[in-house]
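step 3/5: co-fold with NAP
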Amino acid sequence: MPTALIIGASRGIGHELARQYRADGWRVIATARKQPDLDELAQLGAEPVALNVTNPESIAGLGWKLDDESIDAAWLVAGLYGPRHDGFPTQDEFDAVMHTNVLAAMRLLPIVAPLVAVRRGKLGVLSSRMGSIGGRGHGNASLYRASKAALNSVLRDTALAFGPHGATCIAFHPGWVQTDMGGSAADIPVDQSVRDLRATLAKAQPDANGTFLDHDGTPIPW
Ligand SMILES: NC(=O)c1ccc[n+]([C@@H]2O[C@H](COP(=O)([O-])OP(=O)(O)OC[C@H]3O[C@@H](n4cnc5c(N)ncnc54)[C@H](OP(=O)(O)O)[C@@H]3O)[C@@H](O)[C@H]2O)c1
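step 4/5: write tokens
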């Protein structure tokens, strides 16, 4: 039975990833930071692990729990949009978004990628088209955009480090998705985004290592 790891599975895209992999008969290790969400993931048949991605001890605990595991498909989903205003971010806003979207990835991916490499598996990181510099047409939500551009940089470094050992590491835009973050006016329902993300990751070959893809597999400029 293949194993999926979903980091940030309490709601939205992460929760739907956990639900769909379980429905397909996968073993699913899924993280959340609140007990009711962990209980709900257990109800789904997932193996819940408590994780706050901004807490180093919590990340160390995940590393300890994953010791000896090997993973076919890993997804780093947890993310924060941050301020909706377009003024300067406050220090607290900056720290919260960069910590959640960038520093957490720098700490988590070196733990997760080797476990993926063992299985010659795939690792998907939920970035955003808003992080693309080459494809940028708007300057709103500057802090979120900067955080996803930095996350893309972390993903490229992870791909360079662990691709040669067998992990295929990809940054994804999930579409504009109807979740708490995307809002109800978004383009696509979460189940459709996640079906596409899973299918694109599943058919990715090793030469996709270090790429930035839309949910349907279309390349996005860095
Ligand atoms: N929705 C979109 O249109 C869209 C578009 C482009 C990219 N994305 C990206 O896709 C990912 C998922 O988005 P979504 O729409 O599903 O977002 P969402 O509905 O707002 O859910 C965010 C998830 O991140 C988790 N999270 C946030 N901070 C955390 C922390 N410190 N520790 C652990 N978990 C934490 C949340 O957990 P709690 O429930 O505990 O808060 C929740 O599971 C994000 O990285 C987002 O930037 C989304």
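step 5/5: annotate
The CA atoms of residues 110 and 161 lie 9 Å apart.
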